[in-house]
Design a protein that fits this description.
Elements (H helix, E strand, L loop, with lengths): L31 H26 L2 H8 L3 H8 L2 H13 L17 H14 L1 H14 L3 H22 L5 H21 L10 H17 L2
Helix pairs in contact: 1-2, 1-4, 1-6, 2-3, 4-6, 4-7, 5-9, 6-7, 7-8, 8-9
């Protein structure tokens, strides 16, 4: 027969040690409060890995290891390696995406100077230059990475610049202006060809601006 002595006492009741703690948290999607930080950490690690090893030799597993997360989280936030790269490109390139807006921020006769100064200001800033360099190096060495980079430049830069031009061959003009800037940027910041690499930025603006002006405004 069961008596009072057999009834559960205070020692048998669930206590704090039995309550679910952080270790018992359900696996799967990370807590909402940590999502942004985890995503940013993965993107930062991806930029470093793509820069150090190139697109072809960088894997989702390598990115996850550098970010200190499980590879499943990389897939959860971004999907495939190509999608990770596309997200890293977009974030790194964000400071430069305001370039088309400079066309409408002053007189038409100074658009070349405004555009040149805007782009060199972005690249002269160490905080914005580092992630841009990481992505650009990958785009220069891998066809898939180049295709992702090309799509972003077309959709976010040259198409938007062309839409603001009221001249024949607007798309071609926008691409020629971009070619002038990208060529100077690659030689100065990636290849570091002298004397271009150490020239004063204002000197570069003075030389590049007239060429941009011609592409964007001359009939």
């Amino acid at each position: 027969m069961t008596g009072p002595a057999d009834a559960p006492g205070p020692a048998d009741a669930p206590g704090p040690a039995d309550a679910p703690g952080p270790a018992a948290r359900r696996r799967g999607r990370p807590p909402r409060t940590d999502s942004a930080g985890t995503r940013d950490r993965i993107l930062a690690a991806a930029r470093e890995e793509f820069s150090a090893h190139g697109y072809d030799r960088t894997s989702v597993r390598r990115i996850a290891r550098a970010a200190g997360v499980d590879p499943a989280l990389v897939h959860h936030y971004f999907g495939t390696k190509e999608q990770v790269f596309a997200a890293a490109v977009e974030v790194a390139f964000a400071p430069a995406l305001g370039a088309p807006d400079t066309l409408a921020e002053g007189p038409p006769e100074a658009v070349g100077e405004r555009l040149a100064r805007f782009m060199f200001d972005v690249w002269e800033n160490p905080a914005t230059r580092a992630p841009l360099l990481a992505i650009l190096r990958s785009a220069l060495t891998d066809d898939t990475a180049a295709a992702v980079f090309r799509r972003l430049v077309a959709e976010q830069l040259t198409h938007r610049v062309a839409a603001r031009l009221r001249l024949p061959d607007a798309e071609l003009r926008a691409q020629l202006a971009a070619a002038q800037l990208v060529g100077a940027i690659v030689l100065r910041y990636v290849i570091r060809l002298e004397p271009l690499a150490s020239a004063d930025p204002e000197q570069l603006v003075a030389h590049v601006a007239p060429v941009l002006q011609r592409h964007l405004t001359h009939p």
